[in-house]
Amino acid sequence: MTDVTRFVYDAATAVDPLGDLEKEAEKAAKHNRAKVGSGRPSSLLYTYGPGSIMDLPQFTIMSTGLDDWDRIWRRRDSLPPQIHAPRLRDVVRMLLRSPDVQLRPHPWQPKRISLSTEGNDLGVPARVFPQWLRCTGCDMLGMLSQFDYRNTHPFRTDLACFEHAKCTGRSGNRARKPARRTAVPARYLLACVDGHLDEFPYDQWVHHGKPCAQAQFPALKMVDRTAGKGASAVIHCASCNMRRPMNEAQGEAGKSKLPDCRGRHPHLDAFEPKGCRNKTRLILVGASNLWFPATQSIIVMPESQQERASDLADRIRTSLGDKLAKYRENLDILRDLLEGKVDITLLSDQELEQAVTAASAPPATEEEQEEQIRTWDPVDLLVPEWRYLLKDPLGTRHEDEASGLTLSKRARDPALRPEITRVLAVERLRKVNALVGFTRIDDMDRVGDLPRRLAPLTRAARPTWTVATEDRGEGIFLQLDEERVAAWENRVLATDLWQAHRKAHQRNFNRRFSDTAASVDPDTRLRFPRYWLVHTFAHVLIRELAMTCGYSAASLSERLYAWPEAEGREPAAGLLICTTASDSDGTLGGLVQLSEPARLQRVVSNALDKATRCSSDPICAMRTPQDPEDFLHGAACHCCVMASETSCERANRFLDRRFLVDLPGSDLGFFSPLG
């Protein structure tokens, strides 16, 4: 075993599908390509990223850490492609505490025709996980090595499966001719709040932590006749005839019966060198809280002169490496070294010298890095977007080739609500999303005060890259009247309703956040009233736009610009409703068409009118959290306001129709009745 940087790791067990294929070729053995499935880039970032479990038709797999992806890139002569988004890249570098992180797409290459071979050497490496399987014919419970792998059809990876070669059925009649029966994953796992995940120790469980009295390698069975009803299975040792139900491991009472966490990261094939201090929890393979991605994203805007200079300095630094310090005084040699790597042909010697000086600046110290992370606010990613969207486009339609952003100003329909001051049609946009880690048990926004709970993507302490996706699409931007919003917000802050929401948030924070919540003021995590307003408005617009734009409501997403004035940034009150796709051509324009004055007026009018009623009223309209309730919404439910998880950036929290329109018993609506 070798200690690689941070973890205990055995390099001999590395996941290397192409290497395995080469070994099979040396033996002159026919073998299907190592690919076992496929997924869209968005799903491989938000649902099935490194450390998550993906369901295939016959078994489940886990995407490995990025270290194993490097083996695929290294087999190619060309450098891996990068996604250009300097503003996002700098934030990712800060959060990962690594100064050289690149943003790379998933390893994939399109095929010229369906049967061509280019790109066959690219793909996301994965391992079978969990590796305990159960025979569907006889209930035999065993490790992966006890089953045969079948994957013979080169174009039907969905037929790949594990089989019990000599299954005699549940009766165990040895006179019966053995048959091949499919094996499926045993669905129980152990997880801890620090992101570790481990196989469930079935052999220890059924024997209460002791070895089997009859066999060194006991024959286990998982008897499960009520699938879908939680931990309903019973583990049976056929060697000593001991039995133990899995429901004993459930709930608070079951925690004390489970073993301590071993600190395992199966996606890295590694263990924490000092183990883990946490108790484990029983979790199912398909549980929704098994994997929560921690991502950051931006809408790419035209770069300012300062941003371009910073990006140039960074590209010079990363391209030259140690040679930068050696030749920084000789500009002619630097030009030769940078030829073909960084385009500096149009730079004068003075401009190149300034860029080299910036590239040679010493990196931030560890103390400075930790201070940056501690004080960083995710809103900082939104501020440059808001500032650019406040500017009117040059002419009726302005397209920026570098960023791909195309904006058109729309006239306001005379009947459009006066609270909406500006409308922009975002005819083309580019959105870049990057993965910085993941959590288990709790979502990232609930453990942000505890960095150790962010599980790593690599074994290296300072990763050199992370996976990112690039989406293209369209949208509609609406700006609200800041004076009206500020006056409305001051009125709401003094109400009993806002105090009820504030106290509910305190209860929610103290009950559900990590164990350092006591040192964090819950009010610093509570969104301001204007956020509730803009958020609720975005949701009702998404519902109404989906009726006529040609996209489903789940395909539309929100980007909210809602914060009061603070040091270094002006107040914001606006929203961008957009739809994006990972395909190179983006979307079809159905959403932008609804930004035309008359159409948008109808959409807004209908959305606000529908917000005044709900099929769950009056219960919904009067819903206010009271002690001991800790829900983070008011007059909002799935019948009227709440949206799908692909649309909402806050998991349907911070919503209340009473802040949007007047409801019975409330006159706090920002969009007050016209008249």
Automatic annotation (TrEMBL):
Any one Pfam family match given in the protein's UniProt record, by short name? MZB
Identify the InterPro entries for this entry: DrmB (IPR047721), MZB (IPR018973)
Domain named MrfA-like Zn-binding is located at 537-641
Q: What is this protein called?
A: DUF1998 domain-containing protein
State the species of origin.
Answer: Streptomyces lycii
Organism lineage string = Bacteria, Bacillati, Actinomycetota, Actinomycetes, Kitasatosporales
